């Protein structure tokens, strides 16, 4: 049975650090010949490790909403097959809420495991043009698929003060949500908010931070606001709810669902879905508590500090 706290033993890639990799591998226990889905392929950190484990004879199905991520992950997965031949992978650009549709396209009915890392990829944060970062100036976009939906700028310039404050509180756990929403509404009376630099400055002023002090803070004062907007723009909670609802239908008996979340609202949804599934006999086993990174991983990867992994085994 997977343990609820596991010290990672992997050597972390300086350029891309998959969160909670060793606990994920322990929870899923991938074996040659299995078919596993990585619903959030990202740069291929988890996906490449899973593909290596299911080869030979196994199959990795990778999904990502961002087409740029898939193109970056592809060579990493191809390299795995050069070193560990006999496996196979397929990549699909879609939202993980559409998991049953993707599996039909792949000609698969049931799989041995499903992994979802419900966060944002480092490439999205590091590219100023994507608008995810409060540290770099760029258009206030935040769409994981830049061809769909409304950018964050449209929301901050349109939503009411009440709607903004509620989003910052519910989706970002932001204690200064009211002050930040009021500052945004006041600012946009004179000019629209179009880039990340504007929004960062507004949030810092609302929270009584100078930009210099903010840059040195352990948690940037704009971090929770940006997180909330990203979740709102991409409808992440609704998509997670849909994924949790379809998991029992796509897992074969004994199959494992593993979800990594970074926000209390996400983790609560995963916890409730797995608990309710246990009570209904849909799942036969599940983690009692969230698995978190140990101190060594948290030092190596700041993103791991808020990561929580939960797993459940299909009955």
Automatic annotation (TrEMBL):
The record's listing under InterPro entries reads:
RsmH, SAM-dep_MeTrfase_MraW_recog, SAM-dependent_MTases_sf
Q: What keywords tag this UniProt record?
A: Cytoplasm, Methyltransferase, rRNA processing, S-adenosyl-L-methionine, Transferase
Chief location of this protein within or outside the cell: cytoplasm
Supply the SUPFAM superfamilies for this chain. Putative methyltransferase TM0872, insert domain, S-adenosyl-L-methionine-dependent methyltransferases
Give its E.C. classification number: 2.1.1.199
Alphabetized Gene3D superfamilies for the sequence? Putative methyltransferase TM0872, insert domain (1.10.150.170), Vaccinia Virus protein VP39 (3.40.50.150)
**GO molecular function terms listed in the Swiss-Prot or TrEMBL record:** rRNA (cytosine-N4-)-methyltransferase activity
This entry carries the following GO cellular component terms, namely: cytoplasm
Subcellular location(s) of the protein: Cytoplasm
Sites binding S-adenosyl-L-methionine sit at 44-46, 64, 96, 117, 124
Group of enzyme by EC: transferase
Catalysed reaction per UniProt? cytidine(1402) in 16S rRNA + S-adenosyl-L-methionine = N(4)-methylcytidine(1402) in 16S rRNA + S-adenosyl-L-homocysteine + H(+)
Q: Which GO terms describe its biological process?
A: rRNA base methylation
Family from the record: Belongs to the methyltransferase superfamily. RsmH family.
HAMAP family of this UniProt entry?
16SrRNA_methyltr_H
Task of the protein: Specifically methylates the N4 position of cytidine in position 1402 (C1402) of 16S rRNA.
Give the protein name, as stated in the record.
Answer: Ribosomal RNA small subunit methyltransferase H
Q: Which organism is it from?
A: Humisphaera borealis
Taxonomic lineage per UniProt?
Bacteria, Pseudomonadati, Planctomycetota, Phycisphaerae, Tepidisphaerales
């Amino acid at each position: 049975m997977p343990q609820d706290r596991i010290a990672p033993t992997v050597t972390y890639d300086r350029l891309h650090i998959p969160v909670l990799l060793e606990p994920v591998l322990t929870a899923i226990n991938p074996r040659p010949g299995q078919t596993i889905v990585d619903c959030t392929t990202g740069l291929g950190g988890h996906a490449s490790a899973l593909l290596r484990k299911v080869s030979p004879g196994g199959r990795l199905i990778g999904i990502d909403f961002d087409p740029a991520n898939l193109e970056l992950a592809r060579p990493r997965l191809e390299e795995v097959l050069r070193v560990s031949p006999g496996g196979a992978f397929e990549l699909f650009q879609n939202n993980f809420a559409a998991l049953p549709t993707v599996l039909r396209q792949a000609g698969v009915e049931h799989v041995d495991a499903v992994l979802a890392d419900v966060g944002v990829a480092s490439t999205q944060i590091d590219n100023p043009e994507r608008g995810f970062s409060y540290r770099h100036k760029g258009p206030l976009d935040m769409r994981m698929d830049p061809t769909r939906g409304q950018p964050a700028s449209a929301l901050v310039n349109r939503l009411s003060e009440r709607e903004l404050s509620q989003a910052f509180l519910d989706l970002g756990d932001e204690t200064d949500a009211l002050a930040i929403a009021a500052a945004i509404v006041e600012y946009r009376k004179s000019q629209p908010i179009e880039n990340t630099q504007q929004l960062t400055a507004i949030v810092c002023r609302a929270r009584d931070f100078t930009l210099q002090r903010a840059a040195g803070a352990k948690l940037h004062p704009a971090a929770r606001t940006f997180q909330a907007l990203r979740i709102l723009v991409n409808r992440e909670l609704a998509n997670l709810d849909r994924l949790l609802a379809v998991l029992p239908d796509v897992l074969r008996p004994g199959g494992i669902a593993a979800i990594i979340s970074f926000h209390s609202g996400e983790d609560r949804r995963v916890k409730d879905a797995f608990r309710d599934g246990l009570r209904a006999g849909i799942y036969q086993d599940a983690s009692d508590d969230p698995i978190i990174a140990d101190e060594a991983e948290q030092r190596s990867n700041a993103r791991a500090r808020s990561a929580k992994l939960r797993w459940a085994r299909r009955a």
